[in-house]
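Hi support team,

I'm filing this because I wasn't sure whether my run with manganese (II) ion finished correctly. The job status page said complete, but I'd like someone to confirm that the output block is well-formed before I use it downstream. Pasting the exact inputs I used:
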Amino acid sequence: MFSTRYQRMYNNLIEVCKRNLGNFNENLIRKAFDFALEAHKNDLRASGEPYFDHPYEVALIIAKEIPLDDISIASALLHDVLEDTEITYETLVNHFDKTIAEIVDGVTKIGGVIRDHDASQAENYRKLLLSMVKDIRVILVKFADRLHNMRTLEFLSRDKQIRIAKETMQIYVPFAHRFGLAQIRWELEDLAFKYLDPDAYEDIRKKLKATRREREAYIKKTIAPIKQKLDEEGLKYEIEGRPKHFYSIYRKIVNRGKSFEEIYDLFAIRIILDTENIYECYNVLGIITQIYRPVPDRLHDYIAIPKSNGYQSLHTTVVGPEGKMVEIQIRTRRMHEVAERGVAAHWKYKASYKPSNKEIEEWVDWIRDIFENVSNRDEANRDIIESFKLNLYQDEIYVFTPKGDLKVLPKGATPVDFAFQIHTKVGFHCIGAKVNGKIVPLDTKLNSGDQVEILTSKNQTPNKSWEKFVVTSKAKQEIRKWIKQEENKKVEEGKNLVSKALKKLKIHINNDDLLKLVHRAKFDNLNEFYKAVASGSIDIEEFLTHKPEPEKSPVVTELEKNEFEKFASTAREQIGGVLIAGDKLDVLHNYAKCCNPIPGDEILGFVTRGEGVKIHRKNCKNLERLMSIHQGRIIDVSWPNTDGNYFIVAIKIVGEDRPGMLNDISQTIVNTQNTNIKSVNLQTHHSIFYGTVSINVKNLEHLNRIIEKLKKIPGIETVERFEITN
Ligand code: MN
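And here is everything the job wrote out:
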């Protein structure tokens, strides 16, 4: 049950919401109010007031200054429960929803990042903050939170006052400016100024106060003829003369090197027109210049060319009564709203007042637009804008070293990227990493705000696998360079071992012959071989003295492959293709390149997606794997029965290249059961004879008999069925 105090506060908040928000869910705000009140019930602020007064005031600031929606107001009420009470993120999700829980979580996190680190790297901090924010309402609640903390700063120690005021000046003020939140920006700036330079602040305050009466009289005098003329024209408007905020006066004094008394534009007269017709602004400008003489070069048309944060207005300086210069600003009501409330005001002029998620996205786009369409006049802000752009795209992360320095890394960066960013040596000797105090795998993706510590060891060297997960080009290059260097070292080492062994064994071998040996041992090139020697996986002396296995077939050449293809397709064609359940397989089919089945092999069909049926050998390793995944896609196929008919096979013969060899071979074949030779193909290389012979056979028994007879020919080393399987 509410005490009357809280009932009054609640009523007040709802009233402000009704005034500024249009449609909103009062139940949600009520629920958040009750929840926060209960969560903070035992806590007090530094001022001695109930802690709940703080989130309440923050919600009120949102409702008054940046009225966006009920969700941001509820989030403002709840913004400190994760940090200061036992309430957990899950509880918030259950009680409210994920959106609100995430906003509160976001506010807590960016608060923590700012508190735990020195804000001297202000530029990077602004980037860091934005990169952490996925919902722009997080920033709005944080602005309001900071504003209320600044308003109540007097209760803190002097040290804290200075630290918080500095932070405000360095981070929050430029932020608020960028978001077009002029009111909040001015108040933050003046409050920070008050604590950072109390004497200067007090001096300006006193002087403004002392000259107030005089100034107000002057403003009245200046305004009177303008009012008269605007009334005659029948225009609806509001006109006011306001002193500029303290810090901007202070800046003018410092920048222009003048005294307070010499600053003429201590105030500006502002005319707000109740019209949406922007040309009225130019009309009013014309009227004013008929009354007061304009100062040349002091007309700024921010209507035609808005400021980068969306600000629109006409500014002119005229010579007012008593020859004093006066600045006059002319704008429509809508321009005024945008000027005061920035991004939040944007909604007031949209069809629906309560933005949907899609509209929030559009809002982000809109901000992005502002940043992208910044004019050249804003040169000074270029860098900031650049960084905002990046972070709205969320493609950078900001992480801390153990000392609190910020490092910028691309999204997806890992501790290894971070290590190389710090120093190549750190990268080379990195054995592990701690993120926020916990040991993590080296391929862990870092997040903005993480504190990263790299563990190193002198004995550690880069790992080849790092190359797969690092994202920075620096890390990638360094790892590649290192791998290359290591490889070169190994090659040199291997080369030395080989030449030492050759010397010791007194073997003379030219490079070509060595390469032949190396190829026979299935190495692609000499470097691969040298590396294997250096790593010890090959005993070089044994390798050099070991007689190569004669039956070891040389590497399959392209030539051989082509020849086999030719033979296989003839053989398949001649036998009449494959059968399914005794009938010709007449759907799209082809023969697997992995096992190259030919007539005589036991075969199976595999139904592929889009490529018809693939015919494999029954014992194909590839097929085995496919079968284990897609059992249902295997079909039984066979070659036509050749009983009584001949089918074509090829045999491969390797032997000594001696005179009469070919004759011996062909005689042997022809004499075995009158076998017909279809084609012969042979080549010789280093006195070795390689031949393939295709023949017509009746069955496998017939083939085996021929093979046995061929093996008996002097000088023949191997005879086998010609097949190519990978
Ligand atoms: Mn707070």
